[in-house]
């Protein structure tokens, strides 16, 4: 009786410890218990399989632990139970003890769980059947580029949460760290084949409500698909530790009815055409400076810092930098190797400095170069026109 009491006490301690842990973690985090509402077939399948598996494993848990606990109490030493005297795996009964549970688990794994999982995995990988459109997603430190090959649309999407909110100098907004300047827009009810790649390190494009989480790997093209069933705004994040600002490259998707999507495509095309036309005109220095400040704050400030002071050792200062204050172009107007313009256009291999020639327009490049040469105490006084950038490409 004494032993039983001790045993029960131990079990009690174990479970009350476990309960205390669960309660304290609940008190710390306010999250809901369940997964977010699925809005794609993949997300729905995944959730259904998860729930189905939870039932199977709960039944297994209760049965196995039930037998174990019953056996321990029933056959304990204090009620005079004698241990069996046999040694070694002899006799049919012992073979049965091993083989019957083995067969049961095999059935559960391959039939009860295997078949639904197999169907879901095949469905997830089927990116091509009846795809209505393609979206190309490129991960880069620390933003996403979205491209609609069918409509010729391509743009960058960067986090729009202010640095002041991150530094606790300002109250945090509702969608803190989960908001961007240019969200992805996709039509509802269409199968979208998503191609993923990266320009630098591995990133992961993840939207929980889509049930989609796929690595974007440099040098590889990977794919997944979504068919969003309800209009809405869906938010996610990069889910692969990809460097300093890994936590600051959210994914935001606006799912809209098809007519609205087509209107957005037209509007975006006009916008991009207007930006391209801007590269033909001659800009004043003030206009370049104003546009450049905007580009700098979005694209450059995360590494080189808002005041151009840099962040040692990885991110050099632009204030007083030899490269930034060096010559703009050669006497013939050609690109100088390792010059300021060369760095911004082509990046620097082996460092976090990426090539911006493909991600920024002629106007944005000219503006940000002009801005950097005439800010943070740099007083070069010169400027570069978008048309010059165009001719350097
Ligand atoms: Cu990332």
Task: Give an account of the 3D structure.
The chain is α+β, with helices and mostly antiparallel strands and 393 residues long. It folds into 3 domains: 32-125; 133-276, Immunoglobulin-like; 279-392, Cytochrome Bc1 Complex, Chain D, domain 2. It has helices at 2-28, 41-74, 92-125, 163-166, 258-278, 285-304, 340-346, 362-373, 386-392; strands at 133-140, 143-148, 153-157, 184-187, 192-198, 203-207, 212-216, 222-226, 232-238, 251-256. It has a 5-stranded mixed sheet. α2 packs antiparallel against α3 (92-125), α6 packs across α8 (362-373) and α8 packs across α9 (386-392). The protein is elongated.
Order of helices and strands: HHHEEEHEEEEEEEHHHHH
What is the strand tally?
A: 10
CATH topology of the largest domain: Immunoglobulin-like
CATH superfamily of the largest domain: Cupredoxins -  blue copper proteins
What's the helical proportion of residues? 40-55%
Second-tier CATH architecture of the largest domain: Sandwich
Number of helices, where a helix is a run of at least 4 consecutive DSSP H or I residues: 9
What keywords describe this structure?
about 400 residues; binds copper (II) ion; five-stranded mixed sheet; Immunoglobulin-like; about 40% helix; alpha+beta; Cytochrome Bc1 Complex, Chain D, domain 2; 10 strands; 3 domains
Describe the structure concisely.
The chain is α+β, with helices and mostly antiparallel strands and 393 residues long.
Write the layout of secondary structure elements.
Blueprint: H1 2-28, H2 41-74, H3 92-125, E1 133-140, E2 143-148, E3 153-157, H4 163-166, E4 184-187, E5 192-198, E6 203-207, E7 212-216, E8 222-226, E9 232-238, E10 251-256, H5 258-278, H6 285-304, H7 340-346, H8 362-373, H9 386-392
Parallel strand pairs: 1-5, 4-10
Antiparallel strand pairs: 1-2, 2-3, 5-8, 6-7, 6-9, 9-10
Helix pairs in contact: 2-3, 6-8, 8-9
Bound molecules: copper (II) ion.
């Amino acid at each position: 009786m004494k032993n039983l009491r001790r045993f029960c006490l131990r079990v009690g301690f174990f479970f009350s410890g476990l309960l205390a842990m669960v309660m304290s973690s609940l008190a710390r985090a306010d999250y809901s218990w369940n997964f977010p509402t699925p809005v794609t077939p993949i997300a729905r399948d995944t959730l259904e399989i998860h729930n189905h598996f939870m039932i199977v494993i709960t039944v297994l848990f209760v049965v196995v632990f039930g037998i174990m606990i019953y056996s321990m109490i029933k056959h304990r030493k204090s009620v005079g139970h004698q241990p069996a005297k046999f040694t070694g795996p002899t006799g049919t009964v012992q073979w049965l003890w091993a083989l019957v549970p083995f067969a049961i688990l095999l059935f559960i794994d391959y039939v009860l769980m295997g078949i639904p999982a197999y169907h879901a995995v095949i469905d997830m990988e089927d990116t091509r059947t009846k795809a209505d459109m393609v979206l190309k997603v490129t991960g880069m430190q620390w933003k996403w580029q979205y491209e609609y090959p069918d409509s010729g649309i391509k743009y960058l999407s960067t986090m729009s949460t202010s640095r002041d909110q991150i530094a606790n100098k300002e109250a945090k907004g509702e969608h803190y760290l989960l908001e961007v300047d240019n969200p992805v827009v996709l039509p509802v009810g269409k199968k979208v084949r998503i191609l993923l790649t990266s320009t630098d390190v591995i990133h992961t494009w993840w939207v929980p409500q889509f049930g989609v989480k796929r690595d974007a790997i440099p040098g590889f093209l990977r794919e997944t698909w979504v068919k969003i069933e309800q209009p809405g705004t869906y938010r996610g994040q990069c889910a692969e530790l990809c460097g300093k600002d890994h936590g600051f490259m959210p994914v935001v998707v606006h799912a809209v009815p098809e007519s609205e999507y087509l209107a957005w495509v037209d509007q975006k095309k006009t916008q991009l055409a207007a930006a391209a036309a801007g590269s033909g005109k001659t800009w004043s220095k003030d206009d370049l400076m104003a546009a450049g400040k905007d580009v700098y704050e979005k694209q450059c400030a995360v590494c080189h810092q808002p005041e151009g002071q840099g962040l040692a050792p990885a991110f050099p200062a632009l204030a007083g930098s030899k490269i930034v204050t060096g010559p703009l172009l050669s006497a013939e107007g050609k690109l100088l190797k390792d010059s300021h313009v060369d760095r911004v256009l082509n990046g620097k291999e082996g460092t976090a400095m990426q090539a911006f020639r493909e991600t920024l327009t002629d106007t944005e490049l000219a503006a940000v170069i002009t801005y950097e040469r005439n800010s943070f105490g740099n007083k070069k006084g010169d400027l570069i026109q978008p048309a010059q950038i165009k001719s350097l490409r």
